């Protein structure tokens, strides 16, 4: 398949799949040490991707027709009770096009990102909406669905994708597959000062984040269920970076588990994320679309109970998810 920037795939593959780099792996939590070893990427002689599969960062590949039907029932439940039905349906149409291009199914993981983006868009200021070029900064975008959807909604924007190098390859592949006519660049191969407004997608491995610092201002930053899988010092590092590089009129959407214990014993608590008193929170609540989901297996330990009886097909998530939409203080 033709790629706008095939060298980007080669670079990420060489750096994070062929080389054993301890300086890179030091940023991995126990969660990603475990799951990243199960990623599979196969390239042909010309370094084009033949196949790739990941684990631990979302389900966009549902093929079972019964599960697909349950997903759409869940989508309809949320649409019917949502006050922004029209906007949600418009975003859903865009997401369906993206999924068709990428080979995804419109799973509940896709739909949750639609709901999150709609919330962000509702709180964008007039200045943001009318800005010549918005800069979005997405931490941990998995298969690149959120970045691709934002680009459909805001064609004249720069999407910066930051992730562990192994996972970033998935975003580099799928975003290029969906958005072939846009400019896709690596943090290693551009002069940011002169070219940031000409770039549509900028890919930055987490271990190269320092190369982005104080080069431009970010308007909107997004993290959805990946800080809950980081080391605490990594979370602190991202907050420090954002406070240094966000514009004054910014938005930061953070959606993560209230508390999660990783397999290596690391404890991540939302209440300990390094927010400060001068941050302004527009939304701060348990996320309503992370309360239940429908699954093909009728009963499990996560089944929702009514009068102490398990309800078939309705599951709860492993723990409560909080989402917070804020304007972060940058003058501290």
Automatic annotation (TrEMBL):
Which InterPro entries does UniProt cross-reference here?
Methyltran_NanM
Q: Which NCBIfam families match?
A: methyltran_NanM
- Record's protein name: Sugar O-methyltransferase
Q: What organism is listed for this UniProt entry?
A: Candidatus Nomurabacteria bacterium GW2011_GWA2_40_9
């Amino acid at each position: 398949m033709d790629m706008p920037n095939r060298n980007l795939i080669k670079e990420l593959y060489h750096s994070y799949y062929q080389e054993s780099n301890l300086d890179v792996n030091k940023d991995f939590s126990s969660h990603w040490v475990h799951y990243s070893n199960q990623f599979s990427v196969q390239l042909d002689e010309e370094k084009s991707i033949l196949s790739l599969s990941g684990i631990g960062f979302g389900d966009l590949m549902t093929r079972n027709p019964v599960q697909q039907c349950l997903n759409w029932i869940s989508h309809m439940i949320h649409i019917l009770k949502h006050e922004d039905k029209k906007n949600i349906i418009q975003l859903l149409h865009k997401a369906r096009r993206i999924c068709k291009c990428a080979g995804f199914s419109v799973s509940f993981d896709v739909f949750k990102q639609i709901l999150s983006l709609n919330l962000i868009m509702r709180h964008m200021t007039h200045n943001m909406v009318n800005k010549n070029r918005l800069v979005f900064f997405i931490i941990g975008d998995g298969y690149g669905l959120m970045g691709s959807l934002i680009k459909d909604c805001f064609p004249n924007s720069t999407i910066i994708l930051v992730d562990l190098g192994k996972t970033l390859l998935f975003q580099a592949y799928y975003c290029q597959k969906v958005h072939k006519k846009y400019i896709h660049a690596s943090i290693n191969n551009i002069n940011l000062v002169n070219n940031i407004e000409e770039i549509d997608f900028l890919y930055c491995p987490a271990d190269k984040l320092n190369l982005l610092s104080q080069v431009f201002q970010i308007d909107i930053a997004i993290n959805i269920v990946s800080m809950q899988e980081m080391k605490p010092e990594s979370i602190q590092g991202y907050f420090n970076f954002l406070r240094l590089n966000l514009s004054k009129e910014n938005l930061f959407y953070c959606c993560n588990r209230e508390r999660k214990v990783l397999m290596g014993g690391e404890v991540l608590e939302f209440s300990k994320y390094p927010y400060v008193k001068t941050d302004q929170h527009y939304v701060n609540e348990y996320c309503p679309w992370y309360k239940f989901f429908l699954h093909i297996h009728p009963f499990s330990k996560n089944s929702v109970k009514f009068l102490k009886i398990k309800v078939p097909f309705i599951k709860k998530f492993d723990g409560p998810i909080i989402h917070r939409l804020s304007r972060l203080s940058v003058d501290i």
